[in-house]
Design goal:
One of its GO terms (biological process) is proteolysis. This is Peptidase M14 domain-containing protein. GO terms for molecular function: metallocarboxypeptidase activity; zinc ion binding. By secondary structure, the chain is an alpha+beta fold. It has four domains: 226 residues, no CATH class; 119 residues, no CATH class; 188 residues, no CATH class; 320 residues, Zn peptidases (Aminopeptidase). The strands form 13 sheets. It has a nine-stranded mixed sheet, sandwiched between helices. A seven-stranded mixed sheet has the order 3-5-7-6-8-9-10, covered by helices on one side. Helix 9 packs parallel to helix 11 and helix 19 crosses helix 22. The radius of gyration is 35 Å and the shape is elongated. The two termini are 39 Å apart. About 1% of the residues have low confidence.
């Protein structure tokens, strides 16, 4: 090629090294002779960086494949000529050469123009007779460029922002555009060949991260960023004089090495040293929390209290005694035999469960009597009283909920199909339950009835009540009921102690809190609760269902503690405290023994968020980083600069295996969790093998999807699924990364996962929602885009700033088995507007939608995604399981309360768009950036907490779901446009239409 006007194309100095159609490198050898130092070469190098998505610092190194640029003095003219694979630049003097290089950097020939030569004549740049660049006056250009700057800026408020996770300067907000408006000035005596080379690298790298650039890079005193290089008497020092105002000083001979160190410095998130001193300082401030107070509780067994009632009763002669106790069946059977022997006057004695009594009554009494009768049962109707507790949190179907999953258990034990067991909700039913059976002749028979004793407790908001099942002793005679004694269960007595004694004491201890506590940092560090009780613990052999009253207590202690402090915040400040502190309930089954508990509360030592910024970086004599000086205006902190050591161990075995396995993908670490764990992000793109790359620029030329996994750590399938997804995508789609970049957060909440590993040691199959939120019980997505001590909340915003993805997928989970909280209305927590008390699907989808002018486009994109997901799961086991769970969800909830148990059905899958399921708030990407994010989708698999084949089925569901969205994204068309009216701008259609 001999067309000098095409140097800024792939026919010129630019290269597509990996064959994906995108410029990902440059191929040039600038043969700059010693003693020549035209400042305009900085602009030229900035244009090189701007035109590529990745680069290595090799401009001044010879290469057989590179286009050589040579310089030759001339007495007559200044021009550039392309011939014989080389560019020769002739120049009359260095000053004119510098101006000429600035022109080449800012050159904008018309499409189709060709010429082997461009020449500087009369202050303008010509190709033959065609004007290709005009000396419009740098001051005017810079002001015009400033007017076209995007609304979202990058800034340097600390020296650590020079090379940040989002490139040059730290982005204030996420945006698909990034402007470089930079001026580099060098004190005249320092303008040497060696200094110039290093500045060229710095300028090229800064420009590479940008989608818009304002020329010139030299001589523009109105630029947003000013970088001055001046001579000093000592080793080199980089200073931040003011926001966006940088100055490097040092001895003349020391500056080239210092500039080289600065230009090639890698941010610590990429395994370098830059900025790590700030992170290291934050980590050093973390200390083990001191004990605030501890409390010990023990109580009489409800068994002993019931026995005492029998001892003191005068009405046992020929009595029918009915007792409810929250004990396992074998304990209740043993007690029944013992007490019949002790109290021979009793005519009959039954001891029933005080946890899910209706379920146990049917399975332990009604079922055996039916089996003994031997008659064929055609169907069973279970009449259930509608719940009408005054100001109660319970749903009208509370007593149906307490039967779950009785129909499937009857199917397994009796052979009666689950569909032949139906519920009848009756408002004024005399009993809590009545069981009616029909034989094959359609003859109806009453199989039994049950009245369930209940207690009454105020809920934590002091406005509503809950009605948990109570233990009780009922003594009935010929004339009816003679005595009834309600006895608080062991669980209820401990819960009341916790709510009435421990929580008020803790509230008093944290009453002198500072502004921001309870929201961006906790009121206390954590509560550790250990409870020992004799309770029932059994797996039912139906789906993943189990009986576990202590699991229910675990859930109540966790969520109700969160609610207690949420109401405290509303009472004191009109806004809930959503980050009170960690709540860690550990439940221990101790059959037949006295109930006990121990509570330890750890103090949060509140300190203001340190507003330390790096004001100076010093270099060694040989140009290496030495120390960083941070200051808050009053106190200076000096830290040694050292590399971030990538973690060799990870708490999650799947992440650990991935980190240990050679991979073509890059791993970065945007931040640390609250408890100090570095959080990896995997960036999957078609690598060109260059040293530096610009994710934002790569997202300009290719569609990008960001997938988050492990946000709620007790939702266990998304993390293993994401690694299998990558393998599957690579196998199913040849060269899948040619069209799409995929950014993956494999375990968003490592602190929650650490707690999960502790909780599952004793109870491996509980849901363990205490590990759902972060270490202080916060749904940390609520503090994204805020200054916070919770580093896990920063990952999502940082990825958006770095990559500006088109589509966001957030892989989540739902309970794999029944979720009940007897002290919160026998349902999932009241903080949730819809019920999650039983699984509703193997997997379902949720679409986040914006409000405003882009909503219709977002809705259309969701339609495309739903259609693609439906196609993917059609005819699979996933569709079959979704159908099964839909039937269960309708039977136990939706048919009675469709708003509390909603269904938004698509072919083969539920896909929710309603605000009750997918509320919109400003820390959600599509709500915050509707003008460029095309879709934000959540998947929910029934995986809390599962193993083996069930886990793998959830993994497979996530994979299929995510692959379907990847397919929809791959089909979308994008168009990149150049706008070179004011400076240079690259942009494309956003949000894309799938």
């Amino acid at each position: 090629m001999n067309n000098i006007l095409a140097i800024w194309t792939k026919e010129g100095l630019l290269r597509d090294k990996n064959g994906d159609g995108v410029v990902d490198g440059v191929s040039v050898f600038i043969d700059l002779p010693e003693g020549l130092a035209p400042a305009g070469l900085i602009d030229f190098s900035a244009r090189l960086g701007y035109e590529t998505t990745s680069l290595s610092f090799s401009f001044f190194e010879p290469s057989d494949e590179a286009v050589n640029i040579r310089f030759a003095g001339s007495s007559s003219k200044t021009e550039a000529r392309w011939e014989n694979g080389e560019i020769t630049i002739s120049y009359k003097n260095e000053s004119e050469l510098s101006l000429f290089l600035q022109f080449l950097a800012a050159m904008k020939p018309e499409a189709g123009m060709e010429s082997p030569v461009v020449e500087l004549r009369d202050g303008h740049l010509y190709a033959g007779t065609d004007l290709v660049a005009v000396n419009w006056g740098w001051e005017e250009v810079s002001q015009t460029g400033a007017e076209s700057e995007p609304k979202v800026y990058s800034d340097i408020h600390s020296l650590s922002h020079i090379w940040s996770f989002s490139g040059f300067g730290k982005n204030q907000e996420a945006s698909p555009s990034k402007l470089l408006n930079l001026n580099i000035s060098v004190e005249k005596p320092l303008v040497t060949t060696s200094v110039l080379r290093e500045i060229c690298y710095f300028a090229a790298r800064a420009a590479m991260y940008s989608t818009s650039i304002v020329f010139p890079i030299t001589g523009n005193k109105a630029a947003r960023f000013q970088f001055d290089i001046k001579e000093g008497s000592d080793s080199a020092v980089l200073e931040l004089l003011d926001s966006n105002q940088l100055r490097l000083t040092g001895k003349k001979e020391a500056l080239p090495a210092a500039l080289n160190e600065l230009a090639k410095a890698k941010h610590w998130s990429e395994g370098g040293a830059f900025g790590y001193w700030e992170q290291e300082h934050l980590l050093s401030q973390k200390k083990e929390a001191p004990l605030l107070f501890e409390s010990v509780w023990s109580g009489d067994r409800e068994v002993d209290l019931a026995f005492k009632v029998l001892e003191e009763s005068k009405n046992l002669e020929a009595a029918n005694v009915e007792i409810f106790l929250s004990e396992p069946l074998d304990v209740r059977n043993r007690l029944m035999a013992e007490w019949i022997a002790i109290f021979p006057a009793i005519h009959s004695l039954s001891i029933r469960s005080a946890f899910k009594p209706g379920f146990h009554w049917i399975m332990e009494e009604v079922l055996p009597s039916l089996q003994t009768a031997g008659e064929t049962i055609a169907r069973m109707d279970i009449y259930v009283r509608e719940e009408q507790g005054e100001m109660g949190l319970e749903l009208p179907i509370r007593w149906i909920q307490e039967l779950y999953p009785v129909d499937r258990c009857l199917e397994e034990r009796l052979g009666l199909k689950a569909d032949c067991v139906q519920f009848k909700l009756v408002k004024d039913l005399v009993h809590t339950y009545e069981v009616h059976i029909w034989n094959e002749k359609e003859e109806k028979q009453l199989a039994g009835c049950l009245d369930v004793p209940v207690s009454k407790l105020p809920y934590l908001d002091h406005q509503r009540y809950v009605y948990p099942v109570s233990s009780a002793v009922r003594i009935n005679g010929d004339g009816g009921r003679k005595e009834e004694h309600l006895i608080q269960t062991d669980r209820e007595r401990f819960y009341c102690y916790y709510v009435e004694e421990v929580l008020p004491k803790l509230r008093k201890e944290v009453s002198k809190y500072n502004p921001g506590q309870g929201r961006n940092r906790p009121l206390f560090d954590r509560i550790e609760i250990d409870v020992w009780m004799s309770e029932e613990e059994q797996k039912l052999g139906v789906d993943e269902e189990r009986i576990s009253s202590l699991e229910a207590l675990h859930e109540d202690l966790y969520f109700n503690t969160l609610d207690y402090f949420a109401y405290m915040g509303e009472e004191l400040e009109g806004k809930s405290f959503d980050a009170p502190g960690g709540v860690h309930p550990f439940m221990h089954v101790r059959v037949g023994e006295k109930p006990e508990a121990q509570i330890r509360v750890y103090k949060w030592e509140d300190k203001p968020l340190e507003n330390l910024v790096t004001k100076a970086i010093s270099f060694t004599d040989d140009g290496r980083f030495s120390e960083a000086v941070m200051s808050n205006g009053e106190v200076d902190v000096t830290l040694e600069i050292k590399n971030f050591d990538r973690p060799t161990q990870h708490i999650h075995p799947d992440v650990q295996q991935w980190l240990n396995t050679p991979s073509p993908y890059r791993i970065v670490y945007p931040d640390y969790s609250y408890l100090g764990k570095a959080i990896p992000v995997i960036e999957c793109f078609l690598d060109a093998g260059e040293e530096f790359y610009s994710p934002l620029k790569m997202s300009l030329f290719k569609k990008t999807v960001f997938i988050e996994a492990g946000h709620h750590s007790n939702e266990v399938s998304s993390t293993p699924a994401i690694f299998q997804f990558m393998n599957r995508a690579g196998a199913e789609y040849e060269n899948w990364l040619k069209e799409v970049n995929v950014v993956i957060l494999p375990l968003a909440n490592p602190d929650g996962y650490e707690l999960l590993t502790k909780l599952t040691e004793e109870h491996p199959e509980w849901k363990h929602h205490a590990a759902r939120y972060n270490a202080v019980g916060l749904e940390y997505s609520l503090v994204r885009f805020h200054e916070t001590v919770f580093g896990e909340a920063n990952i999502y915003p940082e990825v958006l700033k770095r990559w500006a993805p088109d589509v966001i997928i957030d892989d989540h989970g739902i309970p794999s088995h029944e979720w009940v909280q007897p002290f919160a209305g026998y349902n999932s927590p009241p903080r949730f507007p819809v019920s999650y008390f039983l699984p509703s699907a193997k997997i379902y989808g949720i679409a986040r939608l914006s409000n405003g002018e882009y909503r219709t486009l977002h809705e259309d994109n969701v339609d495309k995604i739903v259609g693609q997901v439906s196609i993917r799961i059609r005819g699979t086991r996933i569709e079959e399981e979704n159908g099964y769970w839909q039937g269960r969800f309708i039977k136990y909830g939706n048919q009675w309360l469709p708003n509390v148990f909603p269904i938004e059905e698509a072919p083969g899958i539920h896909f929710y768009r309603s605000a009750s399921v997918a509320p919109s708030y400003r820390t959600i990407g599509i709500s915050r950036y509707p003008e460029w994010i095309a879709a934000e989708i959540i998947s929910e698999a029934a995986d809390e907490v599962v193993y083996g084949e069930v886990l793998q089925s959830c993994v497979e569901a996530h994979i299929v779901f995510d692959l379907a969205i990847l397919e929809a994204l791959q089909k979308a068309a994008i168009e990149v446009k150049r706008d070179d009216q004011d400076g240079f701008t690259l942009e494309r259609n956003r949000p894309i239409r799938l």
